[in-house]
Design goal:
Layout: H1 18-26, E1 30-37, H2 47-61, E2 80-85, H3 93-103, E3 108-111, H4 123-128, E4 133-137, H5 152-161, E5 169-175, H6 187-202, E6 206-212, H7 214-217, H8 227-236, E7 251-252, E8 255-259, H9 266-269, E9 279-282
Parallel strand pairs: 1-2, 1-7, 2-3, 3-4, 4-5, 5-6, 6-9
Antiparallel strand pairs: 8-9
Helix pairs in contact: 2-3, 6-8
Length: 306
């Protein structure tokens, strides 16, 4: 939990988190910074500003070495950026992602659109910018997973015919708990059924499962098995022959995400050894007090977008 600012700045000083980030990365877990969110005011002024901002993000959070910016995570270098753009217009995000890939080619670039296609804020970025993975929010929408309007097929068609990245992977985004979203919670069993159905029809573009949020995904307040662990053991690590698959490398953004046990495509695996984990967790910072879940490792506080 970060509650201090760099002197004379509005940038939070989270350098105490650097050892924790690095410890996760040593275990093969990818740490992404999620930009945007459902609340707050933000936008890109124009395309030129977006390209300049890409350099700022690289210098501030990724592998840049500018001495003119504060690095909130100190010496820790994040593995990439997740675009969770839910307001402020679509200007500049395609240019931002393309520039980011140009100047930081080893960084992951992901996006988290709503399931309604095309996404109101990210459509241009998805069609004309570079993304390695797409964490589609199949909840809080008419196209929720497990309903007759579930439209993974539409997104799969986009991945195969329109995406600039021929190896892009798609994730089924789902709430990790009933309180994590207004609608769309399925639980491990039903979500596993959805995953296996999609794997049968569009397994070539399926990356895995994204859970909102990471706190609820990896912690059970009732003392039961966390949903991320259930999915990992019962769905993602079991092949069609019923044999457990090899343990994949993990991935975590400002949310929790799970990915399939098959190696991801070469363009992604260059930046994520073996594969991203079948479960990806996305979350706000600090997390997860906004659902009333009291995890012993979290402090209370007002959640803000990480």
């Amino acid at each position: 939990h970060c509650d201090k600012y760099f002197k004379g700045s509005q940038m939070l000083d989270c350098t105490t988190l650097a050892p924790q980030i690095q410890a996760c990365q040593e275990k093969g877990i990818k740490i992404l910074m999620s930009m945007g969110g459902a609340t707050g005011a933000y936008s890109m002024k124009d395309n030129a500003t977006a390209e300049t901002y890409a350099q700022t993000v690289v210098d501030t959070f990724l592998g840049g070495n500018s001495s003119e910016v504060e690095r909130p995570f100190g010496e820790a270098v994040l593995d990439g950026v997740d675009l969770d753009i839910e307001g402020g217009g679509d200007t500049g995000y395609a240019e931002f992602s393309n520039k980011l890939r140009e100047i930081s080619p080893d960084s992951l670039i992901t996006a988290a659109p709503q399931c309604a296609f095309p996404d109101a804020m990210l459509s241009n970025a998805l069609d004309n910018g570079w993304v390695d993975a797409v964490f589609i929010q199949f909840y809080n929408n008419f196209c929720n997973a497990g309903t007759e309007n579930f439209n993974f097929d539409t997104w799969a068609d986009w991945a195969k015919t329109t995406s600039k990245n021929p190896d892009v992977k798609l994730y089924i985004g789902s709430p990790a708990c009933e309180a994590c979203a207004s609608t769309g919670y399925l639980g491990a069993d039903k979500l596993g059924e959805v995953y296996n159905s999609v794997k049968g029809s569009n397994g070539d573009v399926l990356g895995g499962i994204m859970l909102w949020d990471a706190g609820a995904a990896y912690y059970s307040e009732s003392g039961g098995t966390p949903i991320a662990q259930q999915l990992k053991q019962d769905v993602l690590e079991t092949t069609s022959s019923g044999q457990a698959s090899a343990e994949p490398a993990e991935s975590a953004s400002a949310s929790a995400t799970a990915q399939s046990s098959e190696p991801v495509a070469s363009a992604l695996s260059k930046r994520a050894p073996e594969s991203l984990k079948t479960i990806v967790g996305r979350a706000a910072m600090p997390d997860p007090v906004n659902h009333g879940i009291k995890h012993p490792n979290y402090q209370n506080g007002d959640p803000y977008e990480g």
